[in-house]
Specification:
The chain is α/β, with parallel strands linked by helices. Helices cover about 45% and strands about 15% of the residues. The longest helix has 21 residues. The radius of gyration is 21 Å and the shape is globular.
Length: about 375
């Protein structure tokens, strides 16, 4: 209730005043300006170090309550559409590695067809706008079966915030460009913090929990290091931008980065781009490889996944394909060009490697004179099924 004397939050059933924490959202008209950048998209890509820092400030109790809900559920779905779905896929690997806890990731537009809900089910919807039609429909469907619901949202007062049992505000600020960039990394930081909180509750894989948590504060610096290489990424985009078919491949937690990289690329360049697991390459898609086909390989800094993806790169090169490596750590000599982010833990790598993919898509689109802030046929919030 708001009046001239101030405001108070009350229980709508009993009228009792409730003690609520206040989160100040620093959105104003200045944030809707380009601040010297040629486009909103480039501005928002450069805001991601700050967005991650703000995501690290999201209330611990909100994160911990979401982790408790997962711990208490017999079945947890994480759902979303587009970029939000790719954030869910990243978290699939975090919950598996850090918590030894399986979660079911689903495209929210398919949830009514395949979601199995009861009172022991938790459905977590990821929706930047809080108004995504399919995600809201899925949340309502779940509530119809008495399932618990939660949402990770960026817009205060949106429908998802009103209809979910628990809400985590991702705190990434206003995003003007239709294509999600900083809201994606913000969703990831909330999900990673949730996985870390759950892992601590369950006392699972403590050595990896400690290793990942130790790198949390370094994520903004990793992103800044990628932003400093934007001219190098621009040159690579200019060299390859005449091709019209692109394949993004990854393995393990690099796979969602490949999916998001391909999505961002097709959204703003209008060229065909497909993301897939590198293990699926030889199950059909390798027949497409030729000298007009560019593969973007998401390559972690070490371990079996790095060597396996490099093996895939060699197979592609043997068939005349061109390969851009989006690499954590040292360049990969088998690639035509390596766009490198600083070396980091494999479970942290989606943050800097995603920013490399965002810039590669951005500069390719710019070289084709696309309207990167307002791509054709796309809207910021999809409110119809």
């Amino acid at each position: 209730m708001v009046d001239r004397s101030g405001w108070v939050v009350k229980n709508t059933r009993t009228g009792e005043a409730l003690d609520k924490d206040v989160m100040t959202v620093s959105w104003d008209h200045e944030m809707a300006r380009k601040e010297g950048y040629p486009t909103f998209m480039l501005k928002e890509i450069h805001e991601q170090p700050k967005t991650v820092k703000d995501g690290l400030k999201v209330y611990d109790k909100d994160i911990e309550l979401l982790a408790e809900m997962i711990a208490n559920a017999k079945r947890t779905y994480i759902i979303g559409a587009g970029t939000s779905l790719n954030a869910a896929w990243v978290s699939f690997y975090w919950f598996a590695r850090l918590c030894r806890t399986p979660v079911i990731v689903m495209d929210s537009s398919e949830f009514l067809e395949g979601g199995i809900c009861d009172e022991d089910t938790l459905v977590i919807g990821i929706t930047q706008s809080g108004e995504t039609y399919d995600t809201l429909a899925a949340i309502r469907f779940a509530k119809g079966f008495r399932a618990k619901t939660a949402s990770i949202v960026n817009v205060i007062g949106s429908t998802a915030t009103r209809e979910s049992d628990h809400v985590v505000m991702q705190n990434s600020g206003i995003e003007i460009s239709v294509c999600a960039t900083k809201t994606f990394t913000s969703q990831m930081i909330v999900l990673l913090r949730t996985a870390l909180a759950l892992g601590k509750m369950l006392k699972s894989n403590e050595s990896e929990l400690q290793a990942v948590e130790a790198e949390l504060a370094n994520i903004p610096r990793l992103i800044e290091a990628v932003l400093e290489k934007k001219d190098e990424i621009d040159r690579a985009a200019k060299e390859y931008f005449t091709r019209q078919n692109y394949l993004y491949i990854g393995k393990g937690i690099s796979l969602p980065t490949a999916l998001e990289g391909a999505l961002k690329f097709k959204e703003i360049t209008y060229f065909h781009a497909e993301g897939m697991s590198s293990g699926l390459l030889k199950h059909g898609t390798i027949s497409l490889i030729d000298d007009n086909f560019v593969t973007v390989a998401i390559i972690p800094s070490n371990g079996e996944n790095r060597s396996r993806i490099i093996g895939n790169v060699q197979e592609i090169k043997a068939r005349g394909g061109m390969v851009i490596g989006v690499v954590s750590g040292e360049p990969v000599e088998q690639c035509n060009v390596s766009l490198c982010a600083p070396e980091c833990h494999e479970l942290i790598a989606p943050f800097p490697l995603t920013v490399v993919c965002q810039l590669l898509a951005y500069y390719t689109a710019v070289h084709h004179n696309r309207n990167v802030d307002r791509p054709r046929a796309l809207a910021k919030s999809v409110t119809v099924g």
